[in-house]
Amino acid sequence: MSTITTAPEPKTYTMTTIAHEWSSGICDCFKDLPQCCFAFWCFPCFACKTAREAGECLCLPLLDSFGIIPPITLSVRVSVRQRYGIEGTICKDCVCAFFCGPCSWCQIAREIKTRKNPVTFVNMGIR
Description:
Layout: E1 11-15, H1 33-41, H2 43-53, H3 71-83, H4 90-99, H5 101-116, E2 119-123
Antiparallel strand pairs: 1-2
Helix pairs in contact: 1-2, 1-5, 2-5, 3-4, 3-5, 4-5
């Protein structure tokens, strides 16, 4: 006589980041080493790619060289912050855009990547 054992279907849990802060700090460039290297070796290309992922015009970051405070870095940073409900001020965004432009673009890219790819856990436990 044979016994048939059935297991319940695995349950999928999707975790999304709903925190009202950036998922990584402004100086956490090494958390995503491929993006960090891309930004270091070809920053204009990286900024254009990130602007595109943020839903902006591909070549928009190339206009950043025409202002004291990089206007495109600032506007994309504010846009991403508002889209994901991240708390902050325009003053902090200005400081990040002016003093830490490349790091700011890396932070924006990491945020978009984190928010678009939520972590999924599958419960495979058998009861």
